[in-house]
Amino acid sequence: MFENILENVHQKSPLIHCITNYVTVNDVANAILACGASPIMADSIEEVEDITSICSATYINIGTLNERTVDSMIKAGKKANHMNHPVVLDPVGAGASRFRTDTLFKLLNEIDFTVIRGNISEIKTIYTRSGKTKGVDADVKDRIREDTLDDAILLAKGISSRLGSVIAITGPIDIVADENRAYVIYNGHPMMSRITGTGCMLTGLIAAFVAANRENITEAVAAAVTIMGLSGELGYRRMKENNEGTSSLRSYLIDEISKMDAGILKGGMKVEIR
Known about the structure:
Blueprint: H1 3-12, E1 15-19, H2 25-34, E2 38-41, H3 48-54, E3 57-61, H4 67-82, E4 87-90, H5 98-110, E5 115-118, H6 120-128, E6 133-134, E7 137-138, H7 149-163, E8 166-169, E9 174-177, E10 182-185, H8 198-212, H9 217-241, H10 246-259, H11 262-268, E11 271-273
Parallel strand pairs: 1-2, 1-3, 3-4, 4-5, 5-8
Antiparallel strand pairs: 6-7, 8-9, 9-10, 10-11
């Protein structure tokens, strides 16, 4: 299903401008490199327009906010919009503080986002303009289960229709939706939540996949989410076989992203279209 999407990333090797948080910036860079693309991290307001202009997509992550970087995000996002480049948003911790939530809506008002990826609590914050999170994690009451899956799909499609963005909701079950269709993805492993930055890494992958597949945005996002989840499964398997812990899982996860090919993807993906 996603073989051509992955091949396009390998062949085009897009350059991705990342304004992301300092907790996970190195892992984001390594994940983007592992999938076959290239990252550049620049958040100074004096250069973000120049950097955006040489890149194929812009990735904005609000995980460690300050007033200086907010202005840089807006300037970079507007430049990307002007150049018709994809812009991808990770609304980390939206709903956890007034500043964070206000910044989210400022970005949404100023920038047209191609893709928004977050956990269910962060996405609900976009829908309701208020929310509750456990730090940067989803509130346990919000987590997507089989009995809440249909409602979560409707939520994602509704926000996509309203904002014109592809919406990716990640958690125990992942959803990628535009206003007309949704991919439901069952790949992944619970232990991935014990590593800081898996969501940030995924959003970096999404930016790379979208940049290389401009004609098929929704499928590109679904492919990135599937590959991240499958890489987590394979990395966890190696961790258990070697009787190791979460630091090793982090390395194995990036290894598996770098090793992903059409055969591995086809053999391991667990995806439904609704």
